[in-house]
Structure prediction request, 284 residues.
Amino acid sequence: MALVTVAELARKASQGGYAVGAFNLNNMEILQAVIVAAEEERSPVILQASQGGLKYAGIDYIVAMAEVAAKNASVPVALNLDHGTSFEQAMECIRKGFSAVMIDGSHLLFEDNIALVSRVTDVAHAVGVSVEAELGRIGGTEDDIMVADEDAMMTHPDEAAEFVERAKPDLLAVAIGTAHGVYKGEPRLDFKRLTEIRKRVDIPLVLHGASGVPDDAIREACKLGITKINIDTELRIAFSQAVRDILDEDLKQIDPRKILGPAREAMKQVVKEKMRLFGSAGQA
Ligand code: G3H
Ligand code: ZN
Prediction:
């Protein structure tokens, strides 16, 4: 199968009342962990590349990995740019074969965010690529993107309605209390705000910073209209814990396959659990 758009997966998810997981792709082990999990769970899946992922693996490797995975998979696979930083970067990703892009203008003034997203959607839609935008500011750290607690800003429901109507993204990432990275305390999601946004906005909504959010809160978010959920940090934790365990057990281990194999397996288990939690398992 060829790569499909995130919009297509999110539309189906919204009709079926579940969410599709989006997992950050940095290397072959992550790719295989995510795709094997999706196959075993019969789940649609989104691979995405962050700024750090693009720098680490290189855009050509990211696209090649995702294309091989989609071609060989019996479940639908999308490739999304995560937190795209500029019009030019979004265009490069589209040219190289991404099926979806996120353009993150959440740090800009409202009007400037609309202008940037509109520019990207005009081109992306003309060539069949879907677009995710962000309104409000999600706190925490993901690679180069750092948002201090005092700069984080919840999404305003009325602004969300105007933003979607004018900028025309296919998906909207909302700030409702989650943050990127490892949480210090238990995250508290603003479900009232999510309900208000849902009432005013009819495109699929995206939850960033979902690692470490309790299962009940994730279920509630799905019920209230979240149809794409981003997970990166929990894969990092599973990967590094497995590597640590192997090396603690056998300090003389020098075979990368014996170190990375268990890490891949640990990440696969995380992805499988998320697919069951999000309700996407059995939907492909
Ligand atoms: O864009 C990526 C995700 O929002 C990652 O969130 O740090 O909670 O895994 P996370
Ligand atoms: Zn994010």
Notes: The pocket of glyceraldehyde-3-phosphate (ligand 1) is lined by residues 82-83, 142, 180-181, 208-211, 230-234 (CB under 6 Å). The chain has one domain: 6-278.
